[in-house]
Amino acid sequence: MTFDEFDLDRRLLLGIQSLGYAKPTRVQQAAIPEALDGHDVLASAPTGTGKTAAFLIPAIQYLLDSPRRNPGFARVMVLAPTRELAYQTYDFAKTLSQHTDLRVGVITGGINYGSHKDILEKNNDILISTPGRLLEYMDAETFHCEDVEVLILDEADRMLDMGFRSFMLRIADESRNRRQAMLFSATLEGRGIIEFGNHVLAEAVFVEADAPRSEVSKIVEWTHLADSDEHKFAMLGHYLALEDVKKSIVFVKTKERLELVVNQLQAMGIYAAYLQGEMPQDKRLKAIEKLKSGKSPVLVATDVAARGLDIIDVTHVFNFDLPRTADVYVHRIGRTARAGAKGYAVSFIAAHDMLIMKKIERYTEQTFKHRKIAGIEPKNKESAVPAKKKKPHKKKVAKALAKSAKKKTKKKK
Ligand code: AMP
If you take atom 1 of ligand 1, which residue's CA is the nearest one? Predict the structure, then answer.
């Protein structure tokens, strides 16, 4: 299948061609025709599957099919959980629509209020925004959602996790003139995502796009048992000195740990950029740019960077600390092996990490075989984890939920 087969506007096809994609990904093949037909879409699609184009392409096609008649606010609204994701989606939308007259704008926190004036005043067609700042503009009545015709909630699970549920409901409620809504979520497990989808979507078509096996297998996952932080630093130093470790992201659990790792790397003569939650937007963008340009070959990050960060040639992801949940592990390692490249994910596992390591093994359906580095082998062995009661497998639960969601939404027809 090719993009030509979707019968898209020539100007949009030119935008797609500039990205050099040979063919649509699975989620694009499944979602684009349904969205072009005007259906609401509920998609289970993690980052790395091509989900952004899956909602932007039909949204742009809609705007080209039915040009704006009256001046007003944005007609396509994309809500994203993090600033990084919002900016990436914005760049993507600009590229796709570069041969059209459509205007694209982005609103996030961390930017001074004056610079959003143009986006709010002019006929902006596509608005990408994080929830917080948009809420301020809605409260101040400098923005309203009545002109929104296509509402897209990207990484909805993450936004629910971040406590934006009532805000998302408010947007859905206030964009009452919309003709279509699309909800994209990395998983449909837990977090009330199905129930939320049922509330916001009407007669939604369900689309599932687990990353195809071929894409998953491009990430090589290695684990090392670690005796202490010193041991972790010795292993990290070993890796960073290897020639094929060209661009890496080192994930840590907390801001304090971030400082520790950045300082220690510096002491080892490695200059690392860093990224954490409370940084102003310009500093964040600079840090990302440093990694992108290769000025800093290492970026140390807390989990704020685990989603959305799309840097094509990250060769290695290091989990200096394991994350708290298995799905965050999958998001973290997905920062490498982007756009078909091969990538490595290396995790250091301390004695207190055994429980979460087992959870990650169950979630990713594999058993880690720990590697050793000559001269810095671990002294400790893997400690036993108490057996857990058998529960139905999460994926099966998600599938069942998704099926029931599909049935319910179809029944409304
Ligand atoms: P996403 O899931 O939207 O974060 O996209 C993940 C990566 O896949 C991005 O680097 C996209 O540029 C890339 N991508 C999206 N669609 C395609 C496609 N059809 N073929 C190849 N790469 C793609």
Answer: 50
